[in-house]
Amino acid sequence: MNESKNLEDLPFTQKFSSGASLIADAVISVIAEQGFDAISVRKVADRAQVAPGTVQYHFPNKEALLRAGFIRSIQRQSERGLETRNHSEINTVTPEILYLLLEDLLPTSDSGREDAIAWVSFSANADSHEWLSKLYWQALELFQNRILVGLNHLDKSYELSTGLSTLSAARLISALVNGLTIDCLNAPDSARQEIAKELFNG
């Protein structure tokens, strides 16, 4: 994992016009409501409340639609993290700040739930779609790299467990967030906040 890797190095910097962004958001909504295989030009057009021709103008086929939905979902998750941080660079990080940043990835809000379902759907289908497998791994590396940067900037009054490298810790935290995401998606509403707290306790 390259510590210098950032959002600018990856496909997730793709700039969507307002129309394309609306359509990509609709892809995420359709996946969240009906599943990965339900994606079609007509369903996405209905959800975005645009003509099918408008969808095809921006994204000519199903793969392009799915790719746009995946990239847009990663961007939405990044935007929520930036709102929580309230600044563009990590300076001093405490476990509490890291917890808040990671909690934004869990399905504790409507948009967060959509993105979490999309993430699980994309991950479940990555092994049968080569283009998606590559994109998924890039997104996972980006996520782990951001955790790694945060751990490297961790307030010096906090230390990792003896023998645990920041890279290993980043991978473990990534796995924990992914696992808690699935738990949150399948938990009753009353239990979701309690599950989110496990992120900090873990």
Structure in words:
The chain has 202 residues and is mainly alpha-helical. The chain contains nine helices and no strands. The longest helix has 24 residues, at 62-85. Residues 1-8 have low confidence and may be disordered.
Layout: helices, strands, pairs:
Blueprint (H helix, E strand, L loop, with lengths): L17 H17 L6 H8 L3 H7 L3 H24 L9 H9 L6 H16 L4 H23 L13 H21 L2 H13 L1
Helix pairs in contact: 1-2, 1-4, 1-6, 2-3, 4-5, 4-6, 7-8, 8-9
| Beta strand % | under 5%
Task: For the record, give the distance between the C-alpha atoms at the N and C termini, rounded to a whole number.
Answer: 23 Å
Query: Share of helix among residues?
Result: 55-70%
Query: Oligomeric status of the shown chains?
Result: single chain
> The biggest beta sheet, please?
none
Instruction: Give the number of helices.
Output: 9
Mean pLDDT score = 83
Kindly provide the radius of gyration, computed on alpha-carbon positions and rounded to a whole number of angstroms.
18 Å
**SSE pattern:** HHHHHHHHH
Low-confidence stretches: 1-8
Number of E-type strands = 0
- The shape, in one word, is elongated
Structural class, judged by helices and strands? mainly alpha
In short:
The chain is an all-alpha fold and 202 residues long.
Task: Offer a few descriptive terms.
mainly alpha, 202 residues
